[in-house]
Amino acid sequence: MTMTNAGALARLDEFEARERIVEVCRRMHERGLIAGGEGNVSVRLAPDRILITPSGVNKGFLKPANLAVLDDAGRAQRRGPKASSEFRLHLAAYAARPDCGAVLHAHPPHAIALTIADLPLSQDLIPESVVSLGRVPTAAYATPSTTALAEGVGDLIVHHDIVMMARHGSVCIGPDLDTAYDRLESLEHTARITVIARTLGPVQPLDPIEIARLRALAGDPSPVASAAAQEEALVREIAARVMAAIGPR
Ligand SMILES: [Zn+2]
């Protein structure tokens, strides 16, 4: 490939990335995951370059030209729109996770309400959430757009693809924009079901053995899942031996 072609490819990638960010922002706005000038989205264009939404613009009406390009120290690489004030949050996520290709920060109402009420996001109520969400930690409250907030999220995002920020919002990451966006939708959907179930009465989680089975089906290689599966097998074997020893009544 010639240098000219490589340059054309890079420009095409950025053009496509701009179109995709605008589309995802429109979906976030339509689904009530952000409102007004809230929320911000970025993608990694190169190891030291990110494309990020601008500050203070309603993301439901964003245009591809409205985006900013920053280096990995947060310095603007183009003239034009000022980057989101939460750019530190995005840089912290990319620094914490070399596999991260996109970052979405939103204000999903039910997920935030749970952090205000200090209630856990019950990802163990429905099978889909066990498989798709896993444990979602909450970072302690910190003032929006500060380094303290970015550092708190960065510490948690090392081991999690979704992090809640108390009284503020969510950070979802993924290898690409679509995966990160799916995580945001699943997060708010699960939070909404949790809130509705809690208004109807006490909620009961799925059986721990069923949770272990779901995680094993989803290919969870974690020691917790395999230990739970082994524990399940042991409990069943002991129960079978006890029943055999007692005999039919
Ligand atoms: Zn925010």
Give the gist of this structure.
With 249 residues, the chain is α+β, with helices and mostly antiparallel strands.
What's the order of the H and E elements?
Answer: HEEEHEHHEHEEHHH
Helices, by number, come to: 8
What share of residues is helical?
40-55%
Q: What order do the strands of the largest sheet run in, or round the barrel if closed?
A: 3-2-1-4-7-6-5
Count of domains: 2
How large is the radius of gyration? Answer: 22 Å
Mean pLDDT: 88
* CATH top-level class of the largest domain: Alpha Beta
% residues in beta strands: 5-15%
**CATH homologous group name of the largest domain:** Class II aldolase/adducin N-terminal domain
Q: Structural class of the helices, strands and pairings?
A: alpha+beta
Principal-axis shape:
elongated
Poorly predicted ranges (pLDDT <50, ≥5 residues)? 1-10
